[in-house]
Structure formats: structure tokens, C-alpha cells
Amino acid sequence: MCTLFLKLQLFKTLLMGQGLSALICGTAVTSQYLASVYYLNTPMLQSFINYTLLGITYTIALIFRRGDGNILQILKTKWWKYLLLGLTDVEANYAVVKAYQYTTLTSIQLLDCFIIPVLMILSWFFLKTRYRIIHYVAVCLCLAGVGAMVGADILAGQDQGSSSDILLGDGLVLVSATLYAISNMCQEYTVKNLSRVEFLGMVGLFGSIISAIQLGILEHNEVSKIQWTWEIALILAGYALCMYGFYSFMPVVIKMSSATAVNLSLLTGDLFSLFCGLFLFQYTFSGLYIVSLVVILVGFIMFNTVPTLNRALAPASDEEGCDNHAAEFDNDSTQGCVDEITCAQAEQDQIKSQVNQRQSSCVVINSVKM
């Protein structure tokens, strides 16, 4: 039963992780359509729509909450934390989209993987996550899969993007990866120790405010020049729904596994986009894409086969409350096994007790006979 439970948990995590990759693929395809077909390059507008949708649903849910989880209590004690988190998330999205104007797709695919080692380092120090050798091997395997994907792009001649200022573009990708790692680490801490609704509500609130200000400063000319048609509106709506779904379900998968595991599963998102490009943008197919997909999935399964350990953090103060609790272990994936082992040990102890009682009775009877 314990083995079956772990297999089902792993399969569920794998399936949901690939669902997130499919949503990322949807955002990439719709963005490319807007840029290549309709010459619409408004990343802040797209981000603003996403954060607004998050605010409409999750921030309003916080408004109607009662008790300590109410939005007024959250803003009173932790507003500056979520302000920094919202700023980090907005700028991470903006930097990676801006990088496409200066560097190539190959560079972005390679350097974007920088988020994984940064996230592992941040999780080690701040979340007290302890990795094992198999986890490092799995990460290396996933990165090798990305290398195979980039190699297939080069062989197929699909090194898209600009090369006007490669150094600036590569720097933007590294900045974006670092900011994403910080955002994902904070997300893992929040959803495992506080709540998913609180994280999404606060990111929606501050993200919409920050992106609206940045939209008015940087993209007001581009937005005013848009020739609105139903096709553009439909593609923008498709992008917004994919991004909204990604933000809504990513905390669920992170709570089941970890932010590092989720980012490993997202490495297949570029592959899904390439497969869609075979039909939509006439990309050239390469067998290395299949090899890359298999290698990344194998590495992801290896990473999730053995759970990571988390050392408990002591609360810093009474005011922080549950904001300072850290997960001791990945209870969602191991609690079933722990219960089963406990029951088995109880049964063994009961059997031993019965045997000892029988042995004592035999000794008494033999003493009486003598």
C-alpha cells in the first residue's frame, strides 16, 4: 500500500507538472502570434491583465475572509513583504520578455535554466532544504535534456530572436532567472506554511498596481497604437487565461512537491512550444526533441522519487505567528507510509506481548507440576 501511494503521488505530480508546461506553452504560442503576426509587443499589458484577474478572484476572496487571514491584517503586518514579492515577480516577467529584443532564443533557453541552481541554493539557506545525491544527478540529467533541445534548434536552424546586443540580452535572462528563483522560493514558503489564496491575492494586488504604473510609463504609446480586432482580443484573452491558470495551479503543485521540482517539469514547456511550432510556424522537426523530452522526464521522475528533507526553523517572534513555521518533512507524500508503519509496529508489539504472556503461563504451569 505504501509503495502504491508513493507511485500515485509521483504520477499525480508528473501529470500536473506537465499540465503547467502546457499552460506555459500556451502563453508562448499566443505571445509569438501577437508579435509575429500582429506586431504587438506589449509584455506589460499582458502581465497587467494576468495580475488583474488574480486580484479579481483571490484578492477579493481575502477581503471577505474573517479573522487573522483577513486582508487588513495581512496588509497591517506584512504589506512590505508582499510589495517586494510583487515587484520581484513583475520584473522577472518583464526582463525575460525584454531579453528577446537583444539576444537569441538559444541563449534564452540555456541561461533560463540558471533558475534551478539559484533556487536550490536559496532553498538550502532559507527553507533549510537538504538534497541528496540523486537530486543533483536528476538536475544534471534535466539540464542535459535542455542541451539536447538547444542542439536540435541549432541543427534545424531555428536560432530565433535578435542579436543586436547579446551581452545585454543574456544579462537580462540571468536577472530574470534570479528574480524568478526568489519569487518561487517565497511562493513555496507561503503555500506550505500560510495559504495559496494569501499568496495569489497579495501577488494579484501588488502585481496589478506595479504593472499598471510600469505600463503607463513604458508602453502607453504602443497601447494607444493598437488596432483592436476580435482576433487580437481573442489571442490576448487566450494568453491571459493560460497565464492565470498557470499562476493558480502552480502553488498546488509546489505544495505537493517543491519549487525546484516544478521548475524541472517546466523545462518541457519549450519542447511543447516547439512541437506546436511544427504546425503553426513551420518549424523543422528533429529526433533530438524526442530524446530531450524523454531525458527531462526521466530526470524529473528521479528527482521526485526520493523526497527532500527540511530542517525545522524556530519561530523568530510571537508576532510573526505561522509566518515563521517551516515544513519539517514533506508530509503530504509520506504521511500515509508513516501511518502504515506505525500500525505495523503496533501489531508486532501486540503479538510479542501475547507470546510473552503465553511463555509466562507455561513457566508457571511447569513450576506447579514440579
UniProtKB/TrEMBL annotation:
Its main location: membrane. SUPFAM superfamilies: Multidrug resistance efflux transporter EmrE. InterPro entries: EmrE-like (IPR037185), SLC35_F1/F2/F6 (IPR009262), SLC35F_Transporter (IPR052221). It comes from the Eukaryota. One of its GO terms (cellular component) is membrane. Keywords: Membrane, Transmembrane, Transmembrane helix, Transport. One of its GO terms (molecular function) is transmembrane transporter activity. The keyword Membrane applies. It is found in: Membrane. It is a multi-pass membrane protein. The chain crosses the membrane at residues 20-41, 47-67, 108-127, 134-154, 166-185, 197-218, 230-249, 261-281, 287-306. It holds the Pfam family SLC35F. Signal peptide: none annotated. Belongs to the SLC35F solute transporter family. Putative solute transporter. This is Solute carrier family 35 member F2. The gene is LOC107592616.
